[in-house]
Write a structure and sequence with these properties.
The chain contains 8 helices and 14 strands. It is of the alpha+beta class. The strands form 4 sheets. Strands 3, 6, 8, 9, 10, 11 and 12 form a 7-stranded mixed β-sheet that branches. The chain has a 3-stranded mixed β-sheet with strand order 5-4-7, with no helix packed on it. A two-stranded antiparallel ribbon has the order 1-2. Helix 3 runs parallel beside helix 8.
């Protein structure tokens, strides 16, 4: 997609003028982004996307339950095997242009070596999970979908708490685009390609009892 956009731009006779306007706009955006870093607080969930600050409203209990269930399973599994770091909600992911706070992130051990206690901004994770809501679905399937792929996030899960499904996308590193598989329903298992050996019943994301049973199995 990127080479095609470049070729299309180079076909324009006024390409130099267009680039100049884009550079001016990006410089202004960079100033707003620096102000965002000074303004944002630990008790707020806010993202900086394409020059705009996106504030997030409180989420429904169903969203909290899903994030909490999956985060617990991933975190216990990863930490008990010393595979890296798992964070939820408030880890700020700073990419080339935008800053996101995904629902769940995983970085492998190699990337977390240089993490420090006062760190606020983080590099692109190896796996990101976003849980859909009415207010976020367009971004989760749109700008985030493209941006995560462009920055090498190897695995992307989109969880639908209404349908109780998980969509798993793996990165094609030649095209830097995601390849889609079928949605995985609550009667099936999901396996991570990035978190070695991590396999759970999808039902464990949505059902507290199944979650606890799965947690016990992961800790063996």
């Amino acid at each position: 997609m990127q080479p095609e956009l470049v070729d299309k731009l180079l076909d324009e006779p006024n390409v130099a003028f267009i680039i100049e306007k884009v550079q001016t706009a990006l410089a202004s955006e960079a100033e707003r982004r620096r102000a965002f870093y000074d303004w944002t607080k630990e008790d707020q969930k806010a993202e900086f996307i394409n020059g705009e600050i996106i504030m997030h409203s409180p989420v429904k209990r169903s969203h909290l339950n899903v994030v909490g269930n999956l985060f617990t399973l991933m975190r216990v599994y990863v930490l008990s095997r010393d595979l890296g770091q798992v964070d939820s909600e408030k880890a700020l992911i700073s990419l080339t242009r935008n800053d996101y706070e995904p629902d769940i992130c995983f970085w492998n051990k190699e990337k977390t070596i240089n993490f420090h206690a006062n760190q606020m901004q983080h590099p692109a994770p190896d796996l990101i999970v976003e849980v859909l809501s009415k207010g976020t679905e367009e971004r989760d399937r749109g700008v985030k979908f493209k941006d995560y792929a462009a920055h090498g996030v190897a695995e992307y899960w989109i969880v639908d708490p209404i349908r109780e499904t998980v969509e798993k996308y793996m990165l094609d590193r030649e095209l830097m685009e995601y390849e889609a598989g079928p949605a995985i329903n609550s009667k099936q298992f999901i396996v991570s390609d990035v978190i070695q050996g991590f396999m759970i019943p999808v039902r464990a994301i949505f059902d507290q009892k199944v979650n606890l049973d799965t947690l016990q199995n992961l800790m063996k």
